Amino acid sequence: MANRKPEEPPKGAPAWQATFADLMNLLLCFFVLLFSMSTVDAEKWEKVVASFNQTFSVFTAGSTAIGDGILISNGVSQLNELDEYINSTGKMDEGEIVSEDVANAQAQMEEAQMEQSEELAEMIQEAVEEKDMDEMIDIEFTSQYVQLTLKGALLFDSGSTLLKDEAKPVLDQVGLILERYADGTIEIEGHTDNVPMSGAKYSNNDELSSGRALSVFNYLLDVTNLNPANIKHAGRGEYLPVADNSTVEGRAKNRRVEIKIYNALSSY
Length: 268
Hints:
It is a single chain. This protein has nine helices and five strands. The protein has helices spanning 15-38, 42-56, 75-78, 82-88, 100-130, 152-155, 168-181, 205-223, 248-254; strands at 137-141, 145-151, 186-191, 231-235, 256-262. The protein has a five-stranded mixed sheet with strand order 1-2-5-3-4. Strand 1 and strand 2 (145-151) form a beta hairpin. The longest helix has 31 residues, at 100-130. The protein is elongated, with a radius of gyration of 37 Å.
């Protein structure tokens, strides 16, 4: 009679036990990691942060989390302070990071530009007053440019781009000012009121304002030695009023030509 071969015992643990054991090990490691992070040794943390700071130059807060408290234990409660924390690091809404040094440099440049424009405006104002043209030319300035505003009624007849004879002496003096003080870009802009064009050469105010800016541009090139490459001209139509178009006085102010003299520090 044949003997029955004894069955060999199964080799190793069942497959599910191995999977379960791996899972338990991973969970254990995870909680050990959480525990180690929640009890940070201040001295060791300072050394780690200093090392990263020297390498990447991005850490400035040391062991400080978002506000006060331990990062892991108070993490959920600190989420409400996340926006404030991000802003305090210099990160802008668009995601661009601007350092304090860059911000200070920008502020200093803005101040220098404003001072230069102010000095230029004062010199031009003196020249205008010397020629008794202060009632014909308004002077304003920003950090980028000094603006000379000439009234449209002084320069042109209604619906026309032909310069009046009485406007030419004024533009002659403006040309001298530009030759003396304009080292950079000059921009000539024509503006109109919002009254529609009818029965005239130009079909709309866009064309009229462009034609007037071009007339001033051409005249200045004829009477000065300005480099035309430094002069831009454009028609802005009725879209940038400086007064109320519902009144006669307001429409008169809106019909104008502006000449912008950009300073040497301008970003234009």
